[in-house]
Structure formats: C-alpha cells, structure tokens
Amino acid sequence: MVSLMNEREKEAEEWLRQVKKTYIDRGMMKWSGFYLSDHTAQMEEESQKRKQIFVAKNEMSLEQIGEVLEEAFSKGSVVSLQMAELNEEHMYEADLTGKVISFLENRIYLQEKKGAIQIVSIEKIRHAEIVH
Questions:
Q1: Mind listing the pLDDT tens digit for each residue in 27-65?
Q2: Among 98, 128, 114, 129, which residue's Cα sits nearest to residue 42?
Q3: What fold, for 62-131?
C-alpha cells in the first residue's frame, strides 16, 4: 500500500513538472474576459470620440451666450456648448450637451443626459445653442 502511494505521488510530481514546462502564461490576456461590458463600451465610446473631428462653430459674445443660456434655463431646454479650449491635438472637443439647472456667479450647472452634472465657466464657452 505504501509503495502504491509513493508511486502515485511520483507520477503526480512528474505530471506537475511536465505541466510547468509546457504551460505558457498569457499575462494580461487571461484577464480580458473579466472586463465589464459597460467598461468596454465606455472605452470604445472614448476611442470613437478621439477619432472624431469637431469643426469650430461661430464664436459668440458673452452677451449672446448668456441670452441662450437664460432662455434654455427658463424653458428647460437642452443646450449644446462648444468650449473655447482646444485639446492636445489643437482640436475642439465634443460639445457638452444637457440642461442648465442652475447659475452661480459666472458658472452654470449643466446636467447631462446620463445625469452627470458639469460645472462650466461661462467665459470658457465659445458657442451655445438650444438643441430642443
């Protein structure tokens, strides 16, 4: 009985040595299946945004921007805002879109479709328009 156990232990050890010789660790590849679908969708959306080119809209005065924002706030309309700042590639980012839910000094609070609230300095807005 003892020799049978020793023989099985030796076979198991030999098998383990063979597996260690032939096993190739795939590194991070083995974890790719664990990404949440929401996370991969978000990564894809960000990738698509980086590939898009957004043209410069007509630059508006602060007074014109203020009028659009006030109208959108009073009517509960959705606005689209092009910011004046350029990204690292010297291109405009995608417009911020949402409802103006509050004003405070020279800032507006914009609630996006997904519910996130952006605080935007009015001086940094290049163009504003009511979408619907």
A1: 655 566 666 777 778 888 877 776 777 888 999 999 999
A2: 114
A3: SH3 type barrels. (2.30.30)
